[in-house]
Amino acid sequence: MVSEEAPPDSQQGPAQEEPQTRLLSATARRGPRSLPPIPSASRTGFAEFSMRERMREKLQAARSKAESALLQEIPTPRPRRLRSPSVKELETEFGTESGKEAERTQPEDASQSHPRVKFRDSARKIKPKPRLPPGFPSAEEAYNFFTFNFDPEPEEPEEKPKPKPRDETGQEEEKGEEEPPSQEGADRMDEEELVQGQEAEDFLLGLDHRAADFLAVRPADYESAQVRLQREQEMLFVPSRRTVPTYKKLPENVQPRFLEDEGLYIGARPEVARGNQNIMENRLLTQETGRRWFGDDGRILALPNPIKLLPSRPPVLTQEQSPTAELETLYKKAVKYVHRSQQVIGSGDPSGNFQLDVDISGLIFTHHPCFSREHVLAAKLAQLYDQYVARQQRNKAKFLTDKLQALRNAVQTGLNPEKPHQSLDMNQKTINEYKAEIRQTRKLRDAEQERDRTLLKTIIKVWKEMKSLREFQRCTNTPLKLVLRKEKVDQKADEEAYEAEIEAEIRELWEEQGEAYEQRMEAYRTSYQQWKAWKKAQKTKKKKKRQADEEHPEEETEEPHPGEAPGKPTPPEPPDRAAVEQQVRERAAQSRRRPGEPTLVPELSLAGSVTPGDQCPRAEIWRRDDVKRRSVYLKVLFNNKEVSRTVSRQLGPDFRVHFGQIFNLQIFNWPESLTLQVYEMVGHGSPALLAEVFLPIPETTVITGRAPFEEVEFSSNQHVTLDHEGVGSGVPFSFEADGSNQLTLMTSGKVSHSVAWAVGENGIPLIPPLSQQNIGFRSALKKADAISSIGTSGLTDMKKLAKWAAESRLDPNDPNNGPLMQLISVATSGESYVPDFFRLEQLQQEFNFVSDEELNRSKRFRLLCLRSQQVPEFRNYKQVPVYDREILEKVFQDYEKRLRDRNIIETKEHTDTHRAIVAKYLQQVRESVINRFLIAKQHFLLADLIVEEEVPNISILGLSLFKLAEQKRPLRPRRKGRKKVTAQNLSDGDIKLLVNIVRAYDLPVRKQAASKFQQPSRSSRTFSEKRAASPSTHSPTHSADYPLGQVLVRPFVEVSFQRTICHTSTAEGPNPSWNEELELPFRAPNGDYSTTSLQSVKDDVFINIFDEVLYDVLEDDRERGNGTHTRVERHWLGCVKIPFSTIYFQARIDGTFKIDIPPVLLGYSKEQNMVLERGFESVRSLSEGSYITLFITIEPQLIPGESVREKFESQEDEKLLQATEKFQAECALKFPKRQCLTTVIDISGKTVFITRYLKPLNPPQELLDIHRDNPQATAELVARYVSLIPFLPDTVSFAGLCDLWSTSDQFLDLLAGDEEEHAVLLCNYFLSLGKKAWLVMGNAIPEGPTAYVLTWEKNHYLIWNPCSGHFYGQFDTFCPLKNVGCLIGPDNIWFNIQQYDSPLRINFDVTKPKLWKSFFSRSLPYPGLSSVQPEELIYQRTDEGAAAELQDRIEKILKEKIMDWRPRHLTRWNRYCTSTLRHFLPLLERSRGEDVEDTHRTELVRQLGDYRFSGFPLHMPYSEVKPLVDAVYSTGVHNIDVPNVEFALAVYIHPYPKNVLSVWIYVASLIRNR
Amino acid sequence: MAAGTSTVFLLMVNGQVESAQFPEYDDLYCKYCFVYGQDWAPTAGLEEGISQITSKSQDVRRELVWNFPIDVTFKSTNPYGWPQIVLSVYGPDVFGNDVVRGYGAVHVPFSPGRHKRTIPMFVPESTSKLQKFTSWFMGRRPEYRDPKVVAQGEGREVTRVRSQGFVTLLFNVVTKDMRKLGYYTGPADTHSIPVPSVPQ
């Protein structure tokens, strides 16, 4: 190895000598092998040569020393070692021929290297512990000891540390090295490498002997860099850059051959740098098979340079042509991919797919290899007979004869001079035409007749042949039998007819020929004239010519130039009558039956008997056996795919196969081809394809049952030769004995079939609809050709076809048109059906793995469906069972019931049909809105998903900086916002309702000695402001009461929410202060704390104020000294009702509320502070009533749902919508907290501009009639009417998120709505009453954002609460409206841009643009929007009977409830009192709860003098029973547990128009006084 | 339940949150929870877990190893809503604020056997550069309101995320009665699953 690879190195070395240092370092990297042995560089002319030489000598000396040392230890390697330098020497010496040398030594080397490699491997294995202790230098160590010292130091800094220590321990020899190491390095490396190679071998050889020893003692292996480099060397190779001599590249003794010189073309080779080429060549040569890479000329094989000489870049763009123009995309209209749309035909028809019925009835071979000769004849005969029959049926000869007759008659009549009215000219023309036709027809008839006759003759001939054949072969193979029936004819008549015919013919022909003669004569004459003229001309010419002959000799040649040189015409011969007759008779004899000859009618029958097999000749028996072994079947191929096949049937002796099978092909694709393949099987052999039969696709009118059987012929080109009587196929045979007159027959036959479209169960043909092709294709052929006129598909459309027939005036009597006409007449009678629909998703059915019914039947599937549709009952259904059987029917019951009930009005709960309808309707609207909401909920915003800090603006930054500086514990701490809780991870008991009851004002006070009062002592003041004008007449009496009653009232507050009740301690006096916090737990419906669920909580918080009354129950006065025995009673004073939804959306409710105190509170009177009254009369008058200060909140604070961000569609003008957005944005910028409303959503979910809701609308006439002269009273009445319409917050019904505005008529129909609807209706009423009225959008307590109505009375503004019917002056401090955002009139919107927004502090004059920003202004004038409100409201009178009935029902229900609430006590009803109360309620209604107390009281006292009486009437609008029950419950009347208590309860319902019901409930408890 | 025939199938998952690769971050901990459909119910084991804080290994792999075990059993009647494990990784930022370092989710493997999953993790991006800066500065990076979002498709279109690193999970899945109920989850080709080599 070492030796062989040296030579290229030696050559390489000098070439690379110049960068010595670089080379050296490269050596270090590459390994020593690449270093050229410098001494051998004899060719170098460098200066350092002598230097090297010297160095080498020294080195040699050193080496010999070292070797001698080595030898002492390892004697074995010596011979080798000695040899190696000599080898090296040799190589270097003969460096130039090293190639040859290498070749020579190659095999030798291969054999050598093998074992060595092996050794090395084993050495490697052992090496892990090669190091001996220091006193024991191994061979390697010893080697290293010497060699490493020679390491050139400056070469590589990395190697420095390694040699250094060795140097210290080394010997003197290295020290003696004066030469610069860089110089010497090269040599040394070379040496070292050799030594090393040697040494390794030696070592390994030694190892071979003492492997065990080494294994035992050697320390951890160290693979020296040298070894590693050497190993790399084995793998790596650096190709030389030198030119490879040609002889190396060529096979031995071959001279290079240059094809170019020989004149052959070889292309220009690709440019490759010489050096690279050399490298490649060297590289290739190192491989054994390297030579094949070289061509004959000693160069690497290469294809011609593929690079073109001329640059072929795209043309450089000129300046004018911008690159964009070049890059411009051309638009090409999309070419519709003409999909074979016929294939895509509908499916999904529940009745099934399209079906093609292929009925294969049988197969007849007209020729078969197994045919005997007789069969061949029989087939021929049968064929001829068929032909004959067919001709006979058509009877064309007869038809033509008749036609001829008719034409002749016509000619006769035409010639008849008795018809003078026809112009002669015309006549002549038609006659000529007729004659021409006669000629034509006659010719045709003759041909037909002749054909008939020859056919008959042939039949007879074949039959005769057959007979003779049968005799010859002494057996009969076919049952065919021909009988010729003779039909006698009347000889005489026949003869006459014959003669007449001939006569007529002769005459005609004679005439014709006469005419022809005339014509020819004419032609002759003219031509004769011409000839004469020419002749003359010729003569003159000749004369001229002769004259001019001398001068113009060449004209001679021109002489015959008038080419036609007409010969002298011969006159035509006149027609010869006899010849004509002769001709006619000949033809007649030939083609026609001779007169008197009987008509021959052949009849073919199968009546003949076939000779039985045992009587036949042997060959025939073989044939018959062969036939028996054969069987045939058919494959049905649809669109080239096999769809079915018939059963295999044996071939009968008559070569007929009967199948009688019908294949119903259920197809999806349009049939393109329908093919039958005929297969024949011999015995049990493999079937052979005989032939293919292509069946036509039936027209769409061909329906099963109507399709006729058709026969399609087929033939096969197979060649069969049989060794029996069978004639074979494709093989010539002859009937003659001498083999002449050969016949070659191919297997052929007929398949009898019918293909038709199937008819579905319901009589619809299962035909795929045709695509309309050829539409628009109209041509001149239109009239002539039905197909080109209406298209092929039109042929299937019978109506079109009939139309076409009518248009083109087809001759219905033309026998050619006969079938067409018949078809049309059949079709237009309307029997066919062509589907005119197109089916979508025609492939759907393929994907249905179960039928729909089955799917629907699956309960599990249904459950899953309902759940995924988020049907409320199933929305949270968990763990749908696996099997249907585990799903109980019960699961669906509720749902189904609800579905059923959706349309059934149930009056049980609602006690009033109208309300029930409304409730249903509301439910439906709610569902639809909720569904829409659920959809909208899918739209997420970033904020819904990701919590992210807001971008801090400068103010926030400043604030936070400021915060750093602020005090930690400020003296006046600011309220900190509570942490909001999302509703998702809450459970029961987590949420509490906190109600802080602060104080109350002006509570009613007890009457002194209530049972004894004689005269009305109570102030008859009313709660209404209007009485304030004449108030104080009662004051003196009252003041007399006041000092006497020490204990006026001991009120306490009870809060009930969700049937949980808490109450405060008892305070004293009419202006108590409790300052207590009550905590009520909140339970969400069904434990569902989601936002949607919370929003729909309908519960109210009832805050009831009671008076605690202590009664002394000691019956015996003597015991009074010992103890007190009192009973506590509580009397209801009033209540405040706050819906939970309000609290939920407001987060907290803080303020002073007016207490809802019944109009009559028996035993109580309103405390009047006279001192106050005098001083602040005006203020007092406005703030009538009792008030309570409350603070309510939810702990922890819940995040209310956000409004739907859905953008609703709108019918408003786009500009207007943009303006609204702009307006709102501007307003929000200025006053972000003020409510600004421009568009709202109507009940159908569309955005509507708000002013469209405002329009004068008439209030019910009855209300107007009551106070005709008092507009103020009318206004109040109207407000009361509006307030009686039940309040139903949108937020509850519509999951809170979108506020839907219904128009007033919808509102009245629904009888439910929230503030907006009430306010709109009230405002509309006021507008119709002629008031100036606006809608006020603002915030009120406790409602929050709400709508009020503002009216302008003569000199002041009034603010109306539409839901309660109360009204307040602008400066009323107790007005619940706390701030005003905007005003809305019928034609404009004004936004409040004043500094304040409290109604007390603002100016309502909307004409001032500085205070109110109007929507429509000069820049955007009011466009005159039409109203969405109806023209007029129509009021129906409420059915009084129904109201009375409802009244009774409510009373009954309430009584039952009260008894239910008192389970431990007996509840007695005082009927007398009840009736009294019942009489009293209508009065209350009439006076609207005012001004009746005194009379009422006196009456009661008079009647129930013995009872201590406490009770009150409740007044509510009617919506449902439940609120009434709740209200009664909240009063706590039933809580009295005095043993002898009696109750009275009366209900009165006053009907207002439009089913608005005012409900009065009078509840009272009576205790008999003793 | 009818005797003899089972009407639920069981899915037992155990395994561990093995390790993570977050080249830029250190001292991370992870939280896992399962998201599953309505028909699923956990019957045993912990649905949620929070791991210890782990520091990067000192070797070149710089791996964060938790080896945090998962062991939970579900029962279900319906493969719809097959459980997914949702991972969220947190760790301190430069200022020591605890910020999210990645969210990721993967379905529990369907077929029984041993499965190794490497989940790419991502975090939501700030909506603007300024916010990015402030969130970095304040140590309040954007986070999902609910990490379970990453197991759902709804609402993802509004977010932008950046990928962060990888978490490797190991699942051993055992199912019971799946086949009986007609769900065939494929052959448990346990042999071909390469057993992870022991780290050296």
From TrEMBL, chain B:
Principal subcellular localization: cytoplasm
Free-text function comment from the UniProt entry: Component of the tectonic-like complex, a complex localized at the transition zone of primary cilia and acting as a barrier that prevents diffusion of transmembrane proteins between the cilia and plasma membranes. Required for ciliogenesis and sonic hedgehog/SHH signaling.
Presence of keyword Signal: yes
GO BP terms in the entry: camera-type eye development; cilium assembly; embryonic digit morphogenesis; in utero embryonic development; neuroepithelial cell differentiation; regulation of protein localization; smoothened signaling pathway; vasculature development
Keyword Manganese: no
Coiled coil stretches, renumbered: none
GO terms assigned for molecular function: hedgehog receptor activity
InterPro entries: C2_B9-type_dom (IPR010796)
Quaternary structure note: Part of the tectonic-like complex (also named B9 complex).
Domain of life per record: Eukaryota
Homology family: Belongs to the B9D family.
Location in or out of the cell: Cytoplasm, Cytoskeleton, Cilium basal body
Protein name according to UniProt: B9 domain-containing protein 1
